[in-house]
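Hi, here's the filled form for the chain we discussed.

Project: internal
Contact: R.S.
Residues: 295
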Amino acid sequence: MDGWYWVVIGLLAAAIVVMAAKIMLMKKSAGEIEEALAERANIETNTLITLSSRDKALCRLAEGINRDLRQLRQERQRFQTGDLELREAVTGIAHDLRTPLTAICGYLDLLEREALPAEAVRQLAVIRGRTEALRQMTEELFSYSAILSREDKPEPVNLCQALEEALLSFRGAFQQAGIQPEISLPERSVMRMLDKAALERAFGNILSNALRYSSGGLGVTMDKAGEITFFNPAESLTAVDAEKLWGRFYTVENGKGGTGLGMAIAKKLTERMGGKIKAQIRGRSLYITLFFPIT
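And the returned structure, exactly as it came back:
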């Protein structure tokens, strides 16, 4: 009897060891799947998930994930091809529109030098305004496509200095609009590896948007961690407008000459440099917040 007892105990112990080993292998395989998925989510690769385990259930799981990865890669390739074709088409259209617009502006210049009746002068001013709006949109389209096509050139950038330079470049526009910006920046430099030209463009577009929609003021702050906030009174904007602010060609009804591309460009540039940007309505003010983490 004692002999059978120890045999049973031995079999149970062996079964426990086998089950523990199998659980360890399954945990290892699950870790491999998790690590492989995380890696493939961050890089462009054609490699699929492989497992050290031969467990049928886990192999079926890996096979299903690989099937989804193949489909995802195909969809991504179709999207990238379509996006490239769209950018090239937009660039071509914008470039082709430049020549006739330049000619139209030239003829308008000639007409404005002539002695014309008051009604003709009024109608000519309307034509000039529409032509300038079309020219601005054409330039923004061309700029948008060019920006998305160019490669970033990261370099050490002092965020405080870059922001100060952007504000100085708008000094004349602020004075003309009767806006005295309230600025609060940290005393110490906040350094990041960024594309300086792209950063300047993002700041410029945000400040242009503030000038367009501000109803009388502008505040700019930066904390020691490098979080930058632009805020201005914007009684005409709603929470819905803030959510749609990043959409291409989106403008609110009382936008003063806006094409709707400026903030979309600012978002694209910020995110491409690894930053985050968001818009919120607090009370009757619009807050635009940017943050570039240390990389």
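Let me know if anything looks off before we file it.
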